[in-house]
Each structure stands twice: as C-alpha cells, then as structure tokens.
Amino acid sequence: MQLDERKYLILQAIIDDYIMTAMPVGSRTISRKSGVGYSPATIRNEMSDLEELGYLDQPHTSAGRVPSNKAYRLYVDHLMKTVKLTNDERERMHDHLVAKSKQVEGVIRSAAGVLSDATKYTSVIVAPKLGTLRIKHVQLVPVAERMALMVIVTNAGIVKDAVISIPEGMDADELYSISRMLTEKLADKPLEAVRQAFAELLRNAEYNRRLLGDTLQVIEKRLEAGGDASDVIVGGPANMLEYPEYSDVNKARNFLAVLESKDTLRQLLSRDGGMEISIRIGPENQLPALNDCSIVTASYRVGDHSTGTLGIIGPTRMNYNRVISVLEFMGRALSDVLSQYK
Amino acid sequence: MQLDERKYLILQAIIDDYIMTAMPVGSRTISRKSGVGYSPATIRNEMSDLEELGYLDQPHTSAGRVPSNKAYRLYVDHLMKTVKLTNDERERMHDHLVAKSKQVEGVIRSAAGVLSDATKYTSVIVAPKLGTLRIKHVQLVPVAERMALMVIVTNAGIVKDAVISIPEGMDADELYSISRMLTEKLADKPLEAVRQAFAELLRNAEYNRRLLGDTLQVIEKRLEAGGDASDVIVGGPANMLEYPEYSDVNKARNFLAVLESKDTLRQLLSRDGGMEISIRIGPENQLPALNDCSIVTASYRVGDHSTGTLGIIGPTRMNYNRVISVLEFMGRALSDVLSQYK
DNA sequence: GTTAGCACTCGTGCTTGTTGAGTGCTAACA
DNA sequence: TGTTAGCACTCAACAAGCACGAGTGCTAAC
Description:
The structure is a homodimer. In chain A, the strands form three sheets. Chain A has a five-stranded antiparallel β-sheet with strand order 7-3-10-9-8, sandwiched between helices. The first copy, chain A, has twelve helices and ten strands. In chain A, β9 (about 295-300) and β10 (about 305-315) form a beta hairpin. By secondary structure, the first copy, chain A, is α+β, with helices and mostly antiparallel strands. The structure holds a DNA duplex.
C-alpha cells in the first residue's frame, strides 16, 4: 500500500492538530477542518490504513489517533511547510542578542535565553571545540608563592584560565616577558596546534623548561577534557514542564537530570553532517529519558574555523516549523555577533 | 499556657518524625517512640495544647498533626541537637573540591555540586561582590578594528572581561604598555576604588583620555549591574522534585522559575547579620513559590575583604541538622581553597 | 468511491460504600 | 491530680458500580 495525495493531506492535518492540542485526534475533528472535504467515515478508513502503515498509533480503541515517530519523520522531511518569522520577532531577538554583546561571556548565555523564550521549549548552546579556537593572547599572572594564573584569550574573546605552578623566585616582570614571548609565538595558532609550537620552543629553550612544560600540560589537559561545564549553556529548563508530556514529576525529574549532565548534552548535540538543520525524533536520540523529545540543532560559526551548536529540545509534537525558523535565524545572528572580533 | 519539658519533648519527636516521613504524625506513632513513655491519649492531650499554641497544624480532623512554621523556628533555635559529619564524608567533600581547584572558574561550580549531592537538596552559591575584589592584573587585547577585550584578573583568580572600543590606529604594542601601566596603578586596589584611581590617572593624562574614560565606564557599569548570571551558581535544581512537597508539576515549575532568575536568588541569599548560619523558614523569605521551602545560608571568604554566600534550599521539613553541618564545613573549605591565591 | 447509520469499545467522571487511621471526650484508675 | 483505657465520631483514601460520550469499525445504501 502506498501513500497517495489524500493520505498525505490527512496525515498532515492530524499532525498539525496534535501538535496544537496534544490530544488524540478523531475523524470528526479532521473532517471539520477546512481543506479536507470528506466525511468522518472516509477519514476513518484512511486513518485505519495509516495506522496499518505505522504512521498512526491508537492509545485505545475508543480514542482518536496519535502520530507515530515515523509520522513525525515523514512530516519534517516532506510534509512540513516552512513559516516565516515576522520582522518584528526577528528584530526583537536580534536586539536582545546584541544588547549583551559588550560582555562576551554573556552572549551565548543570553542567546540561550532568547531561544527558549522565542520557542517556549528548552534550548541548549554548545560553545565551539576549544581546539579549533585561535589564540589571541597569553598572559601569566602571579597569584601566590610559586603559582600563576594563565589566561588565554582566543578569538571570539573566549577566555580560558588555569592555575599553573611556577619555579621558585620567578617574579612578575619575568612572567610578564614570558607572557609576551608566548603571545608572540602562539598568536593566531589554533589551540590544538599548540603542542607543536611548544615542542619548538622547548628545543631551543632559552626560557625555563619546566614552566613551559607545565603550561603545555595544562593546555593539553584542557583540550583533552573537551571543555567544561560552562561550555554548555541551557536555557529555559523548566519550559518542558509546561507540556502534558512531562506533567509526571518522575519524567520531569529524569528530563532535568539529563540537562544537568553537560557531557551528555554535548554528545546529544553533536551534529551528524554539514546540513543546516538536523532533527532527531524520539528514540533516535537514544536516551530513554528523552524518548518523548525531539532535538533540533543548527550550528553557528566563530571566525573561519570554529563552529558551535545551538539546539532546541521539546516534545516530539513540537512546532518544528517555528523551531527551525528560529534556529536558522539565531544561528546566523550568533555567527555575526561572535565573528565580529577577528 | 507555657511550654513545659514534656511539650518540648513531644514537639521535637513530632518534628523529627515529620522530617523523615513527610506524613502527618499521629499520637500512637509518638507514643511508640523510645524516650517517650506516655500513652497515645496523653500525647493527644499535649498535641491538642500544642495546636492551640500554634506549633502544630491539622490538615483535617482525622489526620495526624504537622509542625507549623512557628514550630520549625523553635526547633532550629532551641530544640535541634547538632550532628557531626563523619570524617569519611568530610574527606570526600574536601577531595571533590580541591580536585577542581586547578581551574578557578570550576571551584564554585563544583562546590555547588558537592553541596547538592551531600544534602540531596538544591544548593546556591553566590560569588563575592565584585566591588570588594582586588585587582591583580589588567590586560587589553586587540580583538578587532577599534576594539579591545579588557581582561581583569582579581584575587581568587576570578576573571572579568568586557569589550571596549579603542581609538583608531592604536596597535597591540601600545595596548600592551597601557595594560602594564594600568596594572601597575591599579594593582591591589579593590574594584570599587577604581573610580578614584582613574580620576587621578585622567588628571595627569599622558595616556589617551578617551580610552581611559571608556575603560572606567565599563568597569563601573559592571559594578553597578551587581554581577551577572555566572555569579550565581545553582546545584542540583531537580533535587527538590524528589520531595512530595513538590510533586505537583505546577509548584515544581514555579520553583524552577525562581532558580532561573539569578537576581532573585542573589537577593534571597543576601545575609542579614554576621552570624555564621542564617535560616529562613517558609514565608520568612517572601516569595510565594518558596512558601514551603527553607533557606539556610553560610558565608565564605575570598582574601581578607570579600565574602560570598553559599546556601541550601529545601522543603521546610528539611534535615536542618545535617544541612547546617555541611554548610559550615563547606564554608570553611571554600574559604581555604579560594584564599590560597593571595 | 463515498457516506449514513448503528452497534460496540473504553476511558473519564460521578456516586456510593467501606475501611482505617486518628481524634476528642468521658470515666476510671494510681 | 495526672494518666490512661475505652468508645463514638470524623474524614481522606480507595474501590466498585454506573452513566456518559467520544470515537471506532462494519455494513449497506447512494
């Protein structure tokens, strides 16, 4: 059995309705809709077919039908018509974003806020992989006896810091000149290329070997760790509780637990290919706690070589249309704001 | 009517039981407890008195009694006996904390995690007021045409950054020497004293007036704003959902909404006096969403002049004993870790 | 191919009855 | 005079029974 024009039409109507109401959809409801000129009985026959084909589920005999995950897949791949955001909305989102752009660390955080406000779902933003960022500046600051704070400024102004130990008796001036030297040697190199640069430095080491070795180690450990908790920002975590899918406290708790595990989120948001928008529906994203969720992701650029991910997590019956529009827009906006610092 | 020895004993037993079970406590239950040698009937008489005095509430006629907020107040002020943490626990917490102490920005975050894990409640940590921190280092880094990133390293290694605009044609070298000058002039001054220092600098300005003015403005704006979202860290937000008090999704949502508003949290955790531990029970902390919550706070030191706050938010029937012990211990531990960088 | 009609299913919400934990009161006891 | 046993009373929680109605599947007529 194949899907003909009418089955598509009816399936789409069902999904549209279910996305709005979260209630099983009956044949009468569809029949009454404008654009569908058939009686409930006819719709029923078609629905029966669609169920057999795996596009619809029936919670129980006397309830309406509910779209299956397979149906959502079809919907986002073929059925869905894209909607445009109003200029007003675009403007509001953009303004919110640039308002914070004076404080670099705040941009991503406020972007997450904008995303979750605009969609009413939960948003997640993952900062670019550390290794791909380019070093702008390295500074060692004495903070205690035999200890210094190493501050690395990268493009996009992202600042990473770590405490390293320094040799006995090394004073501020010495650290200052080492900082200058490091900045000179490492400027514009991506963090992941730092190992090579250091190897070279260490070979003709006029500077203290142990200090450099220590510094290198810190940088490498940071790279290995693959970023820390502050690299994954969640917006509107409580938004999910608005939806009947998560009106059960237990499910809600499990969902929130996933949001707390930044590592899981980072993995969850890792993107498959280069396509602009990626959609994962229900069990497609493995985690049982997210079985009733879909994750839609897009990416943003920082400079020429780094990309980060922004995404929306909502119920499988989310408003894909709108979510996609918002993500596309925000992806561009974020790229603009974060790439203005060359 | 006054509270005699026996009333205290019974009230304490009721509160202890209710803290464990969250179920209204009946006279039989108390009668069976070791240490209370009275029959249910006697207990009932006393309970009736305690209710009249406002220490107990009765959800409905045929239910047991529930401690009132007044009772909790009495409990934490007089009845409660303090418990000691086991050495094992102390060690575990301490280890977790110092494990992260190589990455300064992570210490507070991981402390919040330790707190919420150890208590099973929600934890909040507020960083010290920016103004009280002392400047260790100022660095201007060119990031774009006519734009620089200003990085301020303070004691405790806390790094603040902001983008400022710079005059046309100013190059990296020039920024470098200005940075050096600024560091020299501002080192060891608290951020709130920066205005004066700048006034002086501007008077005998051998350096670019506009740049300095801009820089000052950025610092002041930061101080005024009173800290941003990253200064308030929440641990284990979902922990509260474990308790029947918040098994209603609506209440849970309202609670989580409070946690998202960092400004509200900052206010909520602001501490009254200098006492070591402050406890606010139920409506004492204004917000309706937190009517069934208590907030217990302690403070930690950073250097000699700055203090931050760490706190636990849990149901009013929380285990005050344990929470207090944990907060006291962690307050000391955090102070130690964060004050090692002089 | 479409649709009206009808018997059937089954979750939801309401009522009713039962149970049991817990109370307050009274009277007897030490 | 303080304590306790006894007993009638209350009321939430749970279960059973019932009516309702939304929705289905099937059949037969158009």
